[in-house]
Amino acid sequence: MKVKPDELRSHRWFGTNDLRAFGHRSRIKQMGYSEEDFAGKPVVGIINTNNDISPCHFHFKQRSEEIKRGVLQAGGFPLEIPAMGLAENFQKPTTMLYRNLLAMETEELLRSYPIDGAVLMGGCDKTLPGLIMGGISAGLPLIAFPAGPMMRGCWKGKTLGSGSDTWKYWDELRAGNISECDWRDIESGIARTAGHCMTMGTASTVTAMTDAMGLTLPGASSIPAVMAEHARLASATGRMAVEVIQEDRRPTQIITEDAVHNAVVTTLALGGSTNAVVHLVAMARRAGFNLSPEAFNDLAQTVPLLANVRPAGKYLMEDFYDAGGSRALLKELSPLLKLHTQTINGHTLEDNISDAEVIDSDVITSLVNPVSKLPSLRVLKGNLCPDGALIKPTSMDPAKLKHRGPALVFDSYKELKERIDEADLAINESTVLVMRGAGPVGGPGMPEWGMMPIPKKLLDKGVRDLVRISDARMSGTSYGTCILHVTPESAVGGPLAAVQTGDIVELDVKNGSLNVLVDPEEWNNRLAALKPMTYPDDRGYIKLYRAHVEQADTGCDFDFLAGIDITEPEIL
What is the largest CA-CA distance in the chain? Predict the structure, then answer.
């Protein structure tokens, strides 16, 4: 049964006959609106994360107008409200530090204004997770609108993928294999249109898992940002936002345990970013149930890699879309999915993918002929990471799936940068780089420092991968034998803080173990001597963040925000 006009939340602002409503109506009229524009109509809040320093979102100025057009076509009243944009490349030390702030802002925008439901506009890595986390907690009907990937890059006829080729050619520059002029040409050719990274980085992964959960229109995640189809998607999303309000479809009706299962399966089949684990765990906990990294680990044993997209494959998101996009991938994954889940358009996942087909089977492969049979993700446990760490087997040197070597320890990212290219650095191909002080508390914000650079003295010898361990994250566009999200982190007294240079570290990806081979008595003595770091100079948001952020295995949310506790304030 459709929501009646006097049952709309916005009716309490605009529909009653009292002094408060007089003030609300007079002020909305002050902006040039008439009662015919808003009276009795669903108010759609368009939460737009565009700003002048977010290249992933700079087409959102136009897309918001197209969303408004769709809202008006469906009989709604659109109100665009800017929210904090998180520009991955520019915001330091990391956008992850501010994901929770965006979540809080989104929740309070939706809670405090006369909004009946929302369109959440995001794409760059942390924006969509932050928007959705806040949207879940606010509890209002919503639909997500993904920014879409940029088009492919190019340099001297070579296809460039954002992020992945940045790291690749940076190593070649440092090794002397390309010139400074080449490097500048790559800089100008690697990111040429609006949209987020066109590799299977965090943005492509998170938008795809949001699509698989049913929070977007079907197939929305893979449409490139600058295509006409993306503009049409915007208007269709606006129309659907009105229907979502009228049918009272709440996010917790969509984000069920089965829907999250579908998101996990999709992430693994895409060879997606390790960051997706942190974000999906946080979203699930906002929706009221626990999800652990082990759920990814368990499913990774049976979900093969089907998306032949960089960094685990060779193509880019533009190719993925032309090959059939996310709907085609989900169709191939059907035997592994919960097809009965309800999606935001009122249909089941099965309904939404019934007519999908793969156009190019080299880009989107099948369960019987996957890109790789290695698991896309592995959770490691051991005396270095009792609460877990993550690694991407499909994006590393297979020769290092089992490895033993001496640790070379850096106490901070700053120290790593200062020392990594020293000519007398005591390092060889078997060395295990260890960096600490880069977790949620230590970073702060768990920056993407986990793909530590290869020392120049090894680059010159042709070495392009080393075992690297940290409590940091890494970009989803990164690759290599990088062990990430070591939990608990060193700054809170985790065992990574007890490792010393020269200790032998043993990695066994197949068995899921990561250990330092130190005499147990000595190791226990080291652990007993550890103390959490203190930060007396913190102020403002960072002080709040360090006091309340949780560890990576529980999603790095704030301890006072997880779980459902939707108490809408009374409007007086």
Answer: 79
Euclidean distance between CA atoms 561 and 566, whole angstroms: 11
**Residue 477 pLDDT:** 87
Query: What percentage of residues in the chain have a pLDDT greater than 70?
Result: 98
HSE-CB for 77 with a 13 A CA cutoff = 20
Question: In angstroms, rounded to a whole number, what is the distance separating the alpha carbons of residues 59 and 223?
Answer: 14
- Angstrom CA distances, 151 to 55, 161, 462, stand at 13, 9, 31
Write down the domain spans for the chain.
41-151+193-353, 154-189, 378-528
Backbone angle region of 501, left / alpha / beta, with phi > 0 → left and psi within -120 to 50 → alpha: beta
Q: What is the pLDDT of residues 408-432, one digit of tens each?
A: 999 999 999 999 999 999 999 999 9
SS (H, E, C) 486-526: CCCCHHHCCHHHHCCCCCEEEEECCCCEEEECCCHHHHHHH
Torsion of CA 194, 200, 205, 208, to 10 degrees: 70
Q: Whole-structure pTM over 0.90, yes or no? A: yes
Q: What is the pLDDT of residues 483-524, one digit of tens each?
A: 999 999 999 999 999 999 999 999 999 999 999 999 999 999
Quick one: CA torsion of 58, 60, 65, 67, rounded to 10 degrees? 170
| Average pLDDT value for the chain | 96
CATH of 41-151+193-353, one of 3.40.50.2300, 3.40.50.300, 3.40.190.10, 3.40.50.1010: 3.40.50.2300
Return the number of other C-beta atoms located less than 10 Å from residue 254's C-beta: 21
- Please tell me if the domain spanning 41-151+193-353 has the same topology as the one spanning 378-528: no
CATH architecture of 378-528: 3-Layer(bba) Sandwich (3.50)
Dist CA 212 CA 216 (whole Å): 8
Of the candidates 429, 455, 480, the residue with the CA atom closest to the CA atom of residue 171 = 455
Three-state SS sequence of 407-439: EEEECCHHHHHHHCCCCCCCCCCCCEEEECCCC
Assess whether pLDDT exceeds 70 at residue 568. Answer: no
**Exposure b/e, 471-481, CB count within 10 A at least 16 = b:** bbbbbbbbbbb
